[in-house]
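The freezer alarm interrupted the setup, so I double-checked each line after restarting. Inputs confirmed:
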Amino acid sequence: MSKEEKELSKDELDIVQRIVQRMNVLVYASFFIAVVALFNIMAPDTAERWLGETEKEALPEAVVDTISDDLIENGIHIKTGLIVDDGFNQVKATCLACHSAKLVTQNRADREGWKKMIRWMQETQNLWDLGQNEDIILDYLAKNYAPEDKGRRAPLKNIEWYTLED
Amino acid sequence: MKKKRIGIHELYAKDPIEADRLLWGRESDPASRRGFLKKAGLAAMSLALGSKIVHASEMPAGLIPTLLDQPQSDFELPGKHPDLVVLNDKPWNVETPAHLLDDAITPADKFFVRNNGLVPEDIDVDAWELTIDGESIPEPITFSIAQLKELFTEHTYQLTLECGGNGRSEFNPPAKGNQWSTGAVACASWTGVRLKDVLEHCKVKSDAVYIGYYGKDVHLSRNPKKVTISRGVPIHKAMEDETLIAWAMNGEDIPVLNGHPLRLVVGGWPASVSGKWLTRISVRNIVHDGPKMEAPSYRVPKRPVAPGETVKDEDMKIIESMPVKSLITYPKTGAMVKKGQSVKLRGHAWAGDLSVKEMHISVDFGATWQKANLKSAPNRLAWQSWEASISLKEEGYYEVWAKATDEKGISQPMVVPGWNPKGYLNNATHRIALKVS
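Predicted 3D structure, all chains:
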């Protein structure tokens, strides 16, 4: 399953635009391509080693991707996947003490529905009394994770098309 | 071509021991698979964690330190296929895309994970004990795994396990819980002893009504006094030949995520009755009353209800046998084929306690149905493989729908079946998309 491409953030878009504006970059680019081409012709082996597909022998680049807690992109808190809105901090501190944020983000319900889940967790799963945070949390959930009408059967979606040979 | 960036989890998924070596230069004791040999890697790992690893000598090989184990990053689980879909990581709930269930016997790495609590941390196979007790057992008896193997005859069956909530994501209004699509089902080959033989050895009394299991998984609240889940089945189901206390899946140790070293396997019923990390079975003279036996867990309304209706606890009944259902496991959805090209279709069908009598496929949204070639099951409670072939004469978008019919003549519905508060038992026909050009 391929992971979805991340959309460009505002900052990245700005950078792209600035580059496009500076059209003279093109001049350097053409020059670079010419040099590469020449190099390729003159010393193909070295060129391949330098510019070719290095992934064959390269070990996988191990990335210890400890995601920063401050990272927010397009209104999503990257580390948890939660929507950043009023009540986010209370939800993070309360709900994620026991379970994954995915249990929030994959579910949809109205205010009453979310309240039922909280009551169920309080009755059976050792969730504490949320006090004045309860309303804040419920507002957040009902607004950001509200149900959508799917009908009796939704169209197939997220299809990745590929050619099937005989 | 882009150089592939591989995250820590993918690295661990491929080969945990190699990942230890690559990332930290770590080598653990080959016999115990714990600790840090000659302290190799300990400093690197400690540095990354920013603190000393206490009890480093006990740390199992191939384990990602929890602090580095970021919940949100896209990653795979050790021992599981990288294309499984993680629905939840605390507790682990991971489903298998339909095209990865193509094998007649599901390999361990493609077997879905549905956990209610946290995986037990220190599993000692030699010290593992199973106690049989309860009102309907005269004297509690405790067995080691070695004793189970020694005292009772070993049996192997292919058994279908499907989560009661498989298909939940389609219910409208939405039902709370893990939003499974179609992938909380598998059929592996299980080896163990018959629960029946063990209960008879323990002189089970005639007043037995239900069995209830207990396992070693840790409650999410980490309260050691709280039982994560303790469900079970009526005594008649417990005493069936195919109900096993199993220690092996496909001839190997059961994956830790799936209940190693010992679990119940009760084919055809919601997989939540097949307790994992099994330590105790209570034979009850009442319907078992452990956590998640009570309404509304694993229960559906006694009578059909309108979507979104509030259903009282006393109007709910315990789910027993799972309904008739099937999957198209080949081709993978999204296939583009040529006009007139012969396309082979394959899949499996199952029907809880029953067998599947017929299998049909449709390429015109259920208007007409073509009979598929359906194999018989290798044993009771195993899914049955089917195959068919189609050739489409006109260009355009198609959906292949698969519909199984059980031995009583009951078929899968083409729309999502009766709504229920917890979103169980969605056995609507599986659909894949196909384009002809």
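Quick read of the result. The CA atoms of residues 79 and 413 of chain B lie 35 Å apart.
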